[in-house]
Amino acid sequence: MKIATWNVNSLKVRLPHVLDWLAASQADVLALQETKLTDDQFPVQAFQDAGYRAAFAGQKTYNGVALVTRSEPVDVIADIPGLGDPDRRILGATVGDVRVLDLYVVNGQEVGSDRYAYKLGWLARVTEHVARELAIHPRLVVLGDFNIAPEDRDVHDPEAWREQILCSTPERDALQRLLALGLADAFRLFEQPEKSFSWWDYRAAAFRRNLGLRIDLILASPALRDRCTACVIDKAPRKLERPSDHAPVLATFDL
DNA sequence: ATGGTGGCGCGGCCA
Question: Which residues 192-221 of A interface with strand B at a CB distance below 7 A?
């Protein structure tokens, strides 16, 4: 079973890339972020024609998450008890016997800002929710755009980014509290090239110069970690015309 | 160079 995540930065613009990538990767589950589509605009038919079902929680202009799946997603949730967030950033579903939680973590804008406080509070509520999900579903994948680079090796220039947004200690601590529930960063279960990143700013030719961060993660519960056989970042779509600023990340499970 | 690019939607926000 192949499970992937991709922040597409507008599904309307990126739909051809997504369909091509599904055909090439043969992913069974693709978690999308920043679809920027209302639910009535979601391209259900295009995915159906490609052999996929979908669950989605969208809004106009910002945010929006979706799960594109080979088999029917069931027990879908788009919110967490007690969060009360109008942003569509969360989508949970059961696909086969795997529970999947797609997250578009708050960016946070700037350390110390209102949005930064919102990010840390949001992460704390999500962590509580993941603890509850883990108790119910041994096979749990939490994946998406975490907007946090876990360690300095996930940052092209750790000194320039020191205590900046996406890299600050409180953000990294919040991610560690999530991992401490028993989740494993699938990418780090395997040997990886140095300077592996999943996001590159559109500006300053950052992709060409590989000035990126690894902020798109696939986290696996213990039962799934034991069955994870590979995890890769696919930079190919980032090289296309009008790319997303993120690359897809794909994990393979022996299921 | 306190900039730069991209999406949405048509001015300014967000990333």
Answer: 201-204
Does residue A82 register a pLDDT over 90?
no
A46-80 pLDDT, tens digit per residue, is 999 999 999 999 999 999 999 999 999 999 999 99
Nucleotide nearest to A202 (CA to C1'): B5
3 state DSSP class of A2: strand
Report DSSP state, residue A255.
-
Q: What's the whole-model pTM score?
A: 0.98
| Alpha-carbon torsion angle A51, A99, A39, A238, nearest 10 | -70
Closest CA to A32 of A246, A175, A209: A246
Task: Using the structure, give the distance in angstroms from the CA atom of A82 to the C1' atom of B15, rounded to a whole number.
Answer: 26
Nearest to A6 by CA among A47, A34, A43: A34
Question: Which residues of chain A (49-108) touch nucleic strand B at CB < 7 A?
Answer: 60-62, 106-107
Task: Identify whether A104 is a catalytic site residue.
Answer: yes
